[in-house]
Amino acid sequence: MLDWTDRHYRYFARTMSANTLLYTEMVTTGAIIHGSGDYLAYNEEEHPIALQLGGSNPADLAHCAKLAAERGYDEVNINVGCPSDRVQNGRFGACLMAEPELVAESVDAMKQVVDIPVTVKTRIGIDDQDSYEFLTRFIGMVSAKGCTDFTIHARKAWLQGLSPKENREIPPLDYDRVYQLKRDFPQLNIGINGGITSLEQAKIHLQHVDGVMVGREAYQNPYILAQVDQQLFNSNAPVLSREDVIEKMVPYIEKHLQQGGRLNHITRHMIGLFQGLPGSRSWRRFLSENAHKQGAGIEVVRGAIDLMNANKPAVDPELER
Ligand SMILES: Cc1cc2nc3c(=O)[nH]c(=O)nc-3n(C[C@H](O)[C@H](O)[C@H](O)COP(=O)(O)O)c2cc1C
User: Fold this and answer.
1) Is there an atom of ligand 1 within 6 Å of 93 CB?
2) CATH superfamily ID and name for 7-232
3) Can you tell me which residues form the catalytic site (predicted)?
4) 65-83 CB burial, b ≥16 within 10 A, e <16
């Protein structure tokens, strides 16, 4: 998720779950090929990790897939679900649902140069092209070129008139359509995405499909990740407390600070760790107000914990809202 799942967030997520597949933010082929930064940088601890690419030129996508494989990514995913204007101007994202031939050609070009899985994230439709036949035609053509893994955001996108945020909220979710897709393409790995906010919900979806992708909840309430391994991957590892998670982050934060990084680059992703608990507001506020300051160090994190513990109200006003 753009601006959210950067490498600091992913490291943080990985402290809680060893098995969850983590995705990068969408990185455009243009940025990788022409940009000056290293858009493929990640921490070794982040594995298993998928690079999500935005693009529609098969040669460029293949080039970037090859770079990703060389850098050790475990998977490369094409974004066919983002409806933003900027992305449409670049002729990629959700508008590519209307061009299954091009997506198929891209998958083909990428698969010719890498051995890691080439996967596609898409929606159930775009604009008035929202019939089940439209979706199955897309999946049929792209899978014919060797893509075996699809994640489906279970709502369509309106390419005009709705903001990306509205396009994550207004078009209704249709999980049954994704379940139907799995029944009609049993040989494919079909993952479902959209509006999933608990592991209980995830388990229900897993009775119908092969995978579950959680977006906003995994960011805004990241502690949901702490029991994924135990509940979904049969792990016997102990479940970490939130405080354990913070302690696991301390060496990473200190290294980042030593290298001249800012504290809030990391802590901004940790703001939701105590989501829903008494005192969470103190944690959030203290970090927001202090972690961006010049020279802010690990003492700010410790200060936020202390303040939270000191300010735990008998009843959290936030929960009463
Ligand atoms: C801030 C933000 C950035 C996002 N960026 C991306 C992105 O780069 N690539 C992508 O495939 N989806 C992106 N999404 C969409 C999510 O991956 C997901 O499909 C959507 O939020 C629905 O799932 P959820 O209800 O679990 O959040 C983004 C969502 C948000 C909130």
Assistant:
1) no
2) Aldolase class I (3.20.20.70)
3) 82
4) bebbbeeebbbbbbbbbbb
- Model pTM greater than 0.90? yes
Catalytic residue among 64, 82, 95, 147: 82
**8 Å CB contact between 193 and 152:** yes
The CB-side HSE value for 224 (13 A sphere, CA atoms) comes to 21
Task: Classify residue 126 by its DSSP letter.
Answer: B
* 109 within 8 A of 69, measured Cβ to Cβ: no
**Distance, CA of 6 to CA of 24 (rounded, Å):** 6
Q: Which residues contact 122 (CB under 8 A, 6 or more apart)?
A: 80, 81, 94, 97, 138, 150, 151, 152, 153
From the CA of 17, how far away is ligand 1's center (Å)?
20
pLDDT of residue 319: 54
Mean pLDDT of 302-321: 75
**CATH no. of 242-312:** 1.20.120.1460
Where in the chain are the domains?
Answer: 7-232, 242-312
82 is catalytic: yes
Structure tokens at 171: 């078009």
Cα(52) to centroid(ligand 1), Å: 12
